[in-house]
Amino acid sequence: MYSFTQKFGPNLKTVVLTVFSRQYHVVLSNKVLILSGMFLFITSLLVISFMLQDNINTETQQVFEILFIIYSVTLSSDLIIVEDNKNGVLEQFVLSGIMLEWFLLAKTSASSLIYILLYIPVLILTEAAMGYFSINDLCYSTLLKILIIANVVMSAALSSSFLLSSQKRISQILISMFSNIPVFIISILCYRSGTTPYMLLLVAMFLINFTVSTIISGYLIRVSIEES
Length: 228
Description:
Distance between the termini: 20 Å
Protein name: Heme exporter protein B
Oligomer: single chain
Low-confidence stretches: 1-9
Strand content: under 5%
Largest sheet: none
Keywords: Membrane, Transmembrane, Transmembrane helix
Number of domains: 1
Helix content: over 70%
Number of strands: 0
Shape: elongated
Radius of gyration: 18 Å
């Protein structure tokens, strides 16, 4: 069988680009899972809007939007790490002697970009359909959505890494829930205030999530490979 690590040598740029490209292939080969998450996300927002009708306001819609982003991304989080573990790619990468953190950097970056490209248009169109879209706040709102998705992807990568060692789906769900609570709270504050300080706080949280997720996920993956 052709080894994944034979595609690149020790060159860092080649490693990142190869893993980045592979993540797109992983998503395309599991597009049903991605589309089902998006379908659940869209229908849930529309159903809630229809049921509440005049009782739903912009703030309520934003709360549900964040919650469904967290849920739908977590639903397909196996595509970030678990899928490569099943195929033996993680083990090949560790044995190649290249830092696993570079692998995780490329995987989470590619995953974040994919989710952003898929969800941002859907979020904007959904808001327009529900009558909450504002062209004046487009830049702020779009940047906020990008930061929310990026933070959720980092948490999803961390929670799926725990799944490798514990093999219990409940642990992944609980870790994802608790790790996304600060993201949820700060995102709500960003929506309500519409000011830069809270946005910068969300950026800082992303940098913390990115660092912690990369380090802990790398450790958990190594432990999982050694145990197997």
